[in-house]
């Protein structure tokens, strides 16, 4: 897809990957609405002279208001980046933890697609980009909610592509490992302990921790090539193939890796 002149919405755009994607889109001539629950999105958008929306995409009303705002500010939406996400609770979590992470990491994608896919299939084109994680292909040590919702986000994107790909819908899924953002390090990195620290180390030590701008460059190339699976860390594909070739061996290996992280 040619990005110049296109209208895009990026959620989770106050900082991190979302802000970097918004900047990369703008550099390529797209008009961008930056969306986030964090009011800092106004400052991020201001640096690009682009509109912003402050609200919560974890609710159906929030997604409706976001898309309405985008259509009012930009016109028809050509690309939607479902990038907003949270790490969630450590371990199994509780009922409220599951409700929250499912709404943010999965249902926000579904609700946006429910609004946009019908109009895209009528027009014969549209692009949905979901930020998942390497955890969606592999797993996330220490965080059940994060692992499950990232698997689910990937599965939903697959379904969208299979179901509507012949009607002009393009779909990509971003699945990085470690990226230098708050979702990896948290607001207070020095205070992370226990299960949370184990999960953090599992990601940070598995491969290079990339900068958001580098991830965004990879995303732009993938969109222009209309590639489904976007892997800023190419080694994730080798890990995924190893997992698929012998699931039991892979699970045993992950148990050993977890034990090593917990013991060191």
From TrEMBL:
Keywords: Oxidoreductase
GO molecular function, one term: oxidoreductase activity
Protein source organism: Brevibacterium aurantiacum
Residue ranges that the Swiss-Prot or TrEMBL entry lists as coiled coil: none
Name of the protein described by the UniProt record: SDR family oxidoreductase
InterPro entries reported in the protein's UniProt record: NAD(P)-bd_dom_sf, Sc_DH/Rdtase_CS, SDR_fam
Keyword check for Cytoplasm: no
Domain of life according to the entry: Bacteria
Pfam families in alphabetical order: adh_short (PF00106)
